[in-house]
Amino acid sequence: MTTRMPIIITGGAQRLGLACAQALAEQGYEVIITYRKNREQLKTLEEQGIRCIQADFSNQAGVDDFIALIQKEYQSLRGVIHNASEWESEEAHSDTAILMEKMWQVHVFAPYRINLAFEGLLCAGFEQHGMADIIHMTDYVAEKGSDKHIAYASSKAGLANLTVSFAKRFAPKVKVNAIAPSLLMFNEGDDEEYRKKALSKSLLRIEAGDQESVLAVKYILESRYMTGRTLSLDGGRHLA
Ligand SMILES: NC(=O)C1=CN([C@@H]2O[C@H](COP(=O)(O)OP(=O)(O)OC[C@H]3O[C@@H](n4cnc5c(N)ncnc54)[C@H](OP(=O)(O)O)[C@@H]3O)[C@@H](O)[C@H]2O)C=CC1
Ligand SMILES: Nc1nc2c(c(=O)[nH]1)N=C([C@H](O)[C@@H](O)CO)CN2
May I ask which residue range the UniProt record assigns to the signal sequence (predicted)? Predict the structure, then answer.
């Protein structure tokens, strides 16, 4: 019997996470995604052989429930991609204490607890199958900050720091890397003025799309010599 070694993508029911889940499933990986909100898309994913698990990381119980389910059902993991995220601004939140807690809960607390809990599962396949992977989806603003998404940016900086700590702790059996995008995909509600302004922030001035992050994920999974590093997908914004 072959040992099941799924790769988990959190928040994989839409946008970048969805593109990644479908691409990796097509490539032959066993894929698990987590979602919060039920949606039509999930049926299609299940038909593609992608397991969809409902998980809400906004509180400790939700994180613990998810950990317990995976530990009960699997003996090893090929990887975990921490993609689940909420991009919220101070403007949209009257209570900034709650905003900071919310941002750190999903972007730092959940990945931290899940990584520690899954260390054994991630290391289990090393002798037979080689290194496993953890990928943190951070953000360009983790390094540069953001005057409109202060709590969000700080939490992505926290996640960026987890990358180097876990790279040290889990080597050589698990590689731990980050992907730091800037504008890859607009949101539905983004108007023309916002889109124009956002595109002007980078040198390449394009909305790169979800395949840009799929390419980065595939590179990291196939790499045998990168850990504790970040792939920046930002169109040269740092030079604009
Ligand atoms: N899109 C872009 O241009 C950029 C993206 N990034 C980063 O890349 C990653 C993917 O981006 P994108 O696809 O736009 O992400 P989305 O904003 O579409 O969020 C992805 C998913 O995260 C899930 N999620 C949010 N909060 C929680 C929670 N508390 N518990 C469980 N799941 C949760 C949501 O699930 P549900 O819908 O089921 O509630 C959502 O579908 C994110 O980490 C993002 O910060 C960084 C810079 C730019
Ligand atoms: N969880 C999310 N994080 C981010 C999103 C998003 O849609 N969901 N979008 C962005 C923007 O594209 C920003 O990079 C534009 O400069 C950032 N993070």
Answer: none
CATH of the domain at 168: 3.40.50.720
Complex-level ipTM beyond the 0.90 threshold:
yes
The per-residue pLDDT for range 137-171, each reduced to its tens digit, is 999 999 999 999 999 999 999 999 999 999 999 99
Q: Please identify, by atom number, the ligand 1 atom nearest to the C-alpha of residue 141.
A: 47
The domain total for the chain is 1
Nearest to 171 by CA among 93, 226, 92, 91: 226
pLDDT in tens, 31-60: 999 999 999 999 999 999 999 999 999 999
**Torsions phi, psi of 33, nearest 5?**
-115, 155
The reply to whether 68 falls in a domain is yes
**Residue 142: which domain range?**
7-239
Nearest ligand to the CA atom of 20: 1
On whether the pTM is more than 0.95, the answer is yes
CB of 146 closer than 6 A to ligand 2?
no
Evaluate whether residue 1 is within a structural domain: no
- Which residue numbers are catalytic? 152
Ligand 1 atom closest to Cα of residue 102? 29
